[in-house]
Amino acid sequence: MAAERDMVARQYLTSYWEVLNDGVPALLQALDKQPSISLEEAIIYCFLSLMAKYPDSLIARKTCEAEAAEVAPRAWEALARFWDGEKKRWEELTKLDAWLRAEGNRRNPGTTADLVTACLFIALPEGSITLPLAMPFFAGDSYV
C-alpha cells in the first residue's frame, strides 16, 4: 500500500527493480570503469546514480516532492564530474553533501541509503564485490 510514496515499499512490489536494474549495475560499472577506484567510491557512485534517477522518499516525507526532485540535478552534476579526477570529484561531493545537510539535515537521503545497502547485499554473495576483513576471522579455536 505504501509503494507509491515509499521507495523501499516499492522494491517489495517490483521485485527490487530499481536496485537490480539501476543500483547494482551502477555499483559494478564504477568498479569496472576504473580498477583503482575504492569500494567506498563505487558505493558513492551507486548512491549518486540512484539519487539522480529517483526522488528520495524520505526527503519527500520530511520536506516535499519538489524538494526531493531537486536532488536529481544536483546528483547528476556530481556524477558528471565523478571521473574528472579525485579533486573535482570530492569538490562536487562536498557541495552536494553541504546542500543535503543544510537546514537541519532535512534532506537526508535515507531511503536511497537503504537501496544502496540492498545493492551491497546482492553484490556480496554473488562475489561481485569483496570486503577486506578489518579483523581476523575466528574459526573454531583460532583466528584465520
Write a concise synopsis of the structure shown.
With 144 residues, the chain is mostly helical. The protein is built from eight helices and two strands. The model has no long low-confidence stretch (mean pLDDT 86).
- Broad shape: flat
Which consecutive residue ranges, at least 5 long each, have pLDDT under 50? none
The biggest sheet amounts to:
2 strands, antiparallel
Task: Give me the count of strands.
Answer: 2
Instruction: Please estimate the helix content.
Output: 55-70%
Strand order of the largest sheet: 1-2
Total of helices: 8
How do the helices and strands follow one another from N- to C-terminus? HHHHHHHHEE
Strand residue percentage:
under 5%
Give the overall pLDDT as a whole number: 86
Structural class: mainly alpha
Can you give a write-up of this model?
This protein has 144 residues and is mostly helical. The protein is built from 8 helices and 2 strands; from the N terminus they run ααααααααββ. The chain has helices spanning 7-13, 17-33, 39-53, 57-62, 65-69, 71-80, 86-105, 110-123, and strands spanning 138-139, 142-143. A two-stranded antiparallel ribbon has the order 1-2. The mean pLDDT is 86.
